[in-house]
Specification:
Layout lengths: L9 E4 L2 H17 L6 E6 L3 H11 L3 E11 L2 E9 L11 E8 L3 H9 L4 E7 L9 E5 L4 E4 L20
Parallel strand pairs: 1-8, 2-3, 2-5, 5-6, 6-7
Antiparallel strand pairs: 3-4
Helix pairs in contact: 1-2
Length: 167
């Protein structure tokens, strides 16, 4: 079923400052696991920013991406794998997967299938997707639209990308 912003009951606007703080909190949580990872795999696009923050905080220099599209702006759609992990070794237990949010768990399952044994962490998690991740910082209800800072202006309203604006 495709959801759009209008079918969500709540909005959870996240500022750049809060997202940075929550990403650092995730880094602390990951450090507490006492695990050592060789590389981060960021789930593009949402996982790129927390992956950069966590790479810095945990001193991980190898960062790769998987590119999976499951949203078109504010609408969920069929999952589309655009780029797989290209260099995969062993069982993946030295890989740390980072994403901004686990929602339904479909993207999480696709990434877990690509990299069995990897540790999967997200900044935010919804109940349907929680079983896919090993750790997260903040849980939000399933009917909440998380409004990330890259999708909004200071007013915390959704903003279309420049390419979609009519001049």
């Amino acid at each position: 079923m495709s959801k759009n912003k209008n079918s969500y009951q709540r909005n959870f606007p996240v500022t750049w400052e809060q997202f940075h703080r929550d990403s650092r909190a995730l880094a602390w949580r990951l450090l507490d696991t006492k695990k050592k990872w060789d590389r981060i795999v960021a789930v593009a696009r949402g996982g790129l920013i927390p992956a950069a923050i966590i790479a810095r905080e945990l001193d991980i220099h190898y960062v790769d991406t998987v590119c999976i599209s499951s949203y078109t702006l504010m609408h969920q759609r069929e999952l589309s794998v655009l780029k797989r992990i290209t260099e995969f070794k062993d069982r993946g237990d030295r890989y740390l997967i980072i994403d901004d949010l686990v929602d339904t768990g479909k993207t999480g399952k696709a990434v877990r299938d690509m990299i069995p044994g990897a540790y999967f962490a997200t900044v935010y998690a919804k109940p349907d997707g929680r079983p896919m991740v090993d750790t997260f910082v903040t849980e939000v209800s399933q009917d909440t639209w998380v409004l990330f800072p890259w999708d909004s202006e200071i007013t915390s309203n959704f903003v279309n990308p420049i390419i979609n604006k009519n001049d």
